[in-house]
Automatic annotation (TrEMBL):
This is U3 small nucleolar RNA-associated protein 15 homolog. Its main location: nucleus. It comes from Rotaria sordida. It comes from the Eukaryota. PROSITE patterns: WD_REPEATS_2. WD repeats lie at residues 121-162, 252-293. GO terms for biological process: positive regulation of transcription by RNA polymerase I; rRNA processing. One of its GO terms (cellular component) is nucleolus.
Amino acid sequence: MTDFKQLHIERPIDDGQALTDDDLYWGPLSNSHPTTLREYGPVTTINIAPTRQQWISITDSTRVQIYSPDTLSLVRSFYSFKDTAYCGTFRSDGRLVCAGSKDGIVRVFDFETRTQLRHFKEHQGSPVHCTYFSRDKTYIFTGSDDRTVRVFDLATEKQLSKFDHVHTDYVRALTPGSTTNPHLFLSGSYDRTMKLIDRRISNNDNILMNFDHGDQIESVLMYANETLAITAGGLYLKVWDLLGGGRLLASLSNHHKSILCTGFTCEQNYILSGGLDRHVKIYDASTFRVVHTITYPDAVLSLGMIGPNDRALCVGMPGGLWSVKRRDGSQQKSNLSSTITMTNGYESIKIDNNNDMITSNSSLVQIDDESTNDTKSTASSGSRKAKSRRRFFPSGIVTPTTTDPIATANRRPRLAPYDNYLRKFRASAALDAAFTSALKRRQPDIVLALFKELLRRQMLKQALAGRDDLSLLKILRYLQKHIAHTTYMPVLIEVAHLISHLYDFSTSSSDKNNKAMEKLQRTIHDELQFQLELMKTKGAIEIILAASTTSTLMETNSTNYHNHNNNNNNNNNSTVISTM
């Protein structure tokens, strides 16, 4: 007996365009179910440690908290702040954490012991919103609401430089230079300017470049190779060429509310921006075009990408929530072991996912991964208990090998309800089940696929005949909604033609069905008028193109004729001259 061939459901793309490589790359991350955690206040900064562990630093309220990227469990907490904390960031080796605060004190903590190692009070009570380590791990760059940018030495706990003439408004954005130029950094301010500063120059000449963003700057970025810089603020994200003298390369305005944060992906192939419009825009770093958009339930205050391969996106929101979207949609599996308990002719076996060992009461056998793929049982992170199996070994413990034949169960796939009815040749019940499935999954193409199958089997009339008012109303509304779609039109025209012959709506007692049929007629009439206008436009365009082609040919022939006459005249003149 052969298996029943399930209904093939085509997934049409509404915009008529094929999916791009960027859609395929960002689709799994965008469509995954997010993991959401709640903090005590707005999540103003998310910073990912540039180390192998990639700890997640969350700055909210009066604390900086560190989370594991795999389990999202709390690893460290720093509570030494008397007022709101800002911009908790890691040093490049992940051993130190610095953060500013509303009381103007910059604090430095040891990550392992959570001890406060340094504190700098030079900002004198003005809120410090920006704190970053230099790439050579020896300095801290800070930006404050006192309109100054300062550089502190970690070793001596002293202020090295103070730049009080650089900006005329709050400094809300900083980014340090690369490891090759650790003395350079970018600063952005509410005075609408970004400055490229060299900390080694103490006089007024320390401003190497000046950039006018045109709006209050909330975030600045610099490429690792120091070729390009990015400013974000207001509705615009702008890209500047550092090697080309600071010229503007691109001005992007894809947000419809203010941009609050920006970031790079792990390989700096894409640029991320988030704002008050609840969107995270993803730009191609080479073309500066938006390739994907992710929507969130609240404004986006901060964001960070976890590598490798951009496997997770963290986003902070003002309501105290922060969200993590992963590509696989699930958390990492924990290394739990599953135990199989057997008695009366069964051996006791323990399967350990870490060491790939089989342990019995009498022996310890090392086996390879390929031979145990059918015996391992995986457990989800912490919540699912280890499952037990029972297997009979007549001669005690048996060591599986790679040459052993494996018997696989040939199980039939589970059929959908409409497939079950089709298998029993119950066309009307299959159509009702298809409408139910399409409503649950929000996939109208299920009904379209069933209509096609019923047409192929010549059972469409049987499925549409003898229906009550409620089921007929579902079909009429479906036709009215989708008949103008180019993908649905050829099939739904046949369905509408059959319904008009099977039912007489002039004598129908259902007002809803009569109104639905009138709407369907108006939809068909409007579509016919639209097609007629298109045909008229097409005819007019063809006339214009034909006239243009004719005039071009006439001009070409006229030019050739004149050239021919000129050649003949030249030949006649040369003949006369030769005879003279």
